[in-house]
Design brief:
CATH topology of the largest domain: Rossmann fold
Strand content: 5-15%
Bound molecules: NADP nicotinamide-adenine-dinucleotide phosphate
Number of helices: 20
CATH superfamily of the largest domain: NAD(P)-binding Rossmann-like Domain
Number of domains: 2
Shape: globular
Radius of gyration: 22 Å
Length: about 475
């Protein structure tokens, strides 16, 4: 491959089609594309219409005005990013004919990031978005006249049923993709949902199962399309690019824990402390997505890339918990409800359930009742439920650990030129856990709890009282 033509050059005068831009990773990817690939022609972003917004352009504006985009010129951003209305669960992605034609004629790369990431979404819903949706995006990519590469964001845990080293290859499932798609087309949602356990087999939830089936679909239907399947483990805030600790939601359990423990309402991390917390930074992941696109555009092959930290730079759940609590005490939230204190507890024990009831819900219930008596608004139970949602159904992943092969990712890293290795770094060996977790704590405080840095000195003083 021509290594003198680096990653950014692969996007010179190219158009990109991107799904999932209103989500955490899609927005980080869009920012990096526009900032680090200056000769990029433009990006079409597929956005669903939502009631709260007049149109998809307004939804795009909300994304572009996030602090994440602070290093990109706003005019440049608006001139390069084009919103198209669509929904991956609809036939033809719900694209209007004109938009479809434009995308097909212009685009060279597709990054399919959108997914239903709710672990326990109803099977019908998860299949519609994650499997049938991927088929629709893949078909669009195959229709593109100038197609150079299709990058699919999968998950390392789609192979969580594997007990040996998980290889960078697509693992078949006893279910055939065609059969599942036929069931989806022919059976009513409640019949499909009623068969969830039977269909999932050993999978712990509908998310990992449908992501695995999407990989199988891509492998069997890609034809000669160059494809990269990138499998990250648990993705949390950015390491440093474009800002440290960027986060816009706390849907992942590891982040929900920081958000909840930061307010003092979480006292326990449901995990086996000695197991590896396989966490990776969002900015490194998007750097890998771009480098993978560059690679497959050249090789024309299907390649799978694991993006995990456990093998090279591991941190355990108890270490993660200890670091998070230490950093939360050093950088406390304003309006702290209880002193930040937490430890790992095995999520399957009765002791843990009792502890959650006593240490999380009982004080929240009591203080809310007191608030009501004093004429104040009760908020604690709501907060407790909100953060608990992010932590729900994660115990399968915090009780177990996997050994992911990362040979392809390491090989890709080794062939990056010097400039690319700086601009598109995905070297997990560089993660300094105490610094990174502190930045994530600060990021959750600033971008999620919306507490500006200027409020830190007062919050620190309050905690010392
Ligand atoms: N975050 C992680 O820890 C992690 C780890 C491994 C893999 N991944 C993978 O990374 C990808 C992105 O995850 P994320 O954390 O960024 O999730 P996220 O914040 O929930 O974003 C999901 C995105 O998908 C879009 N989407 C969902 N259903 C759609 C539909 N029917 N049509 C069009 N767009 C739809 C959402 O749009 P709306 O705003 O309209 O809902 C949103 O933009 C997913 O493929 C996920 O499997 C994530």
């Amino acid at each position: 491959m021509d290594e003198t033509k680096g990653v950014a050059e692969a996007f010179r005068d190219r158009w990109v089609f991107l799904t999932g831009v209103t989500g955490f990773l899609g927005s980080v990817l869009l920012e990096k594309l526009v900032r680090s690939c200056p000769h990029l022609a433009g990006v079409y972003v597929l956005i669903r219409k939502k009631k709260k917004f007049t149109d998809v352009q307004q939804r795009l504006e909300t994304v572009l005005s996030l602090p994440l985009f602070c290093r990109v010129d706003k005019d440049l951003l608006r001139s390069k990013v084009v919103a198209v209305e669509g929904d991956v669960s609809l036939n033809g992605l719900g694209l209007e004919d004109v938009a479809r034609r434009m995308v097909i004629e212009r685009c060279h790369f597709v990054f399919h990031v959108a997914a239903n990431i709710n672990f326990n979404a109803a099977l019908h819903q998860a299949l519609s978005v994650n499997l049938a949706g991927t088929q629709r995006v893949l078909q669009l990519a195959k229709d593109m006249v100038n197609m150079k590469g299709f990058v699919y964001v999968s998950t390392a845990y789609c192979n969580c049923t594997q007990r040996d080293v998980v290889a960078e290859k697509v693992y078949p499932n006893r279910w055939e993709v065609d059969r599942l798609l036929r069931i989806l087309a022919e059976q009513p949602p409640d019949v499909i949902n009623g068969s969830t356990d039977r269909i999932l087999g050993g999978h712990p939830n509908t998310y990992t199962f449908t992501k695995l089936m999407a990989e199988n679909l891509i492998a069997s239907e890609r034809g000669d399309l160059p494809v990269a399947i990138v499998r990250p483990s648990i993705v949390i805030g950015t390491l440093c690019d474009p800002i440290a600790g960027w986060v816009d939601n706390v849907q992942s359990g590891a982040f929900a824990f920081i958000a909840g423990a930061g307010r003092g309402v979480f006292r326990t991390l449901p995990a086996t402390g000695s197991r590896v917390a396989d966490i990776v930074p969002a900015d490194q992941l998007v750097a890998l997505l771009l480098a993978a696109a560059w690679r497959i555009a050249d090789t024309g092959r299907l390649q799978v890339f694991h993006f995990t930290s456990g093998g090279r730079n591991p941190v355990t759940w108890s270490e993660y918990c200890r670091l998070a609590v230490t950093k939360l005490r050093e950088n406390p939230c304003t309006g702290l409800i209880l002193y930040p204190r937490a430890s790992c507890r095995s999520p399957t024990t009765v002791r843990h359930a009792l502890y959650v009831a006593m240490a999380h819900y009982a004080p929240a219930y009591l203080l809310d009742t007191l608030a009501k008596i004093c004429g104040d608004k009760p908020i604690l139970l709501d907060i407790q439920y909100k953060y608990s949602k992010g932590m729900a159904h994660t115990d399968y992943f915090t009780r177990n650990e996997w050994n992911f092969s990362t040979a392809n990712t390491e090989d890709l890293w080794s062939i990056l030129g010097e400039t690319d290795a700086k601009e598109f770094s995905f070297d997990v060996g560089k993660i300094n856990w105490p610094t990174y977790i502190e930045n994530c704590v600060l990021g959750v405080r600033e971008y999620y709890h919306k507490q500006p840095r200027s409020t830190l000195p007062a919050a620190r003083k309050y905690l010392k009282l």
